[in-house]
Design a protein that fits this description.
It is built from two helices and twelve strands. The protein is an alpha+beta fold. It folds into two domains: 2-43, no CATH class; 48-215, Glucose Permease (Domain IIA), CATH 2.70.70.
Amino acid sequence: MILYRCCWVLFFAQLVAGFFFDFSWMWGWIPLGLAIVLQFAVNRQPVLPDPSRAVEVGLPVTGRWPALNSPADKVPSHGTHGYGQSYAIDIVAEPEDQARPRFGWWPVVRRNRDFPAFGAPLLAVADATVVRTTNRHRDHLQRGSLAVREGDRVRAGQPLARCGNSGNSTEPHVHFQLMDGPDLDVAHGVPFSWRGVGVPGNGEVFSADEEPAMP
């Protein structure tokens, strides 16, 4: 994945340089071609563990949530094995007493706080050690909501932070995945099963226990 990203950087650098310097465009297609080949190689790596041997963990949220982009429907769930996403799942909040906004012609965009997922508590799914955190970007996790630091030991069900909105996203949601290591460039996805729920399919709604108090 590091080489893949370097190829794209080199391609765009040569593309920009072509407007200022006189050299053959042929050289620009070499890193582009290599990036495409590497992308196919990543996406075609073998599907790794047997889903029937999924790791059982607790739920990262509470309340009522529909599932999107689920490994119950396809693997890789997000169209790529890269970044440990083979068995990733997206979920959005939709409480019984609060409708999730629907998309239409107007308004063109909605505020994060219009969606019930934004600010929802996120919980540790197992007893573990915190490997990496970020608390200043707006909003990967909701900025300023992080309740743990790198190196902290956490218990299953312990509040960690609140849901934000980032990445390839149309609305605030929780992207959940297990990996066999902390480095996204080399990690492989690991199949999971949420205790008491399993793996909900696309559009399937599940409910978790009542919301815990945030520290």
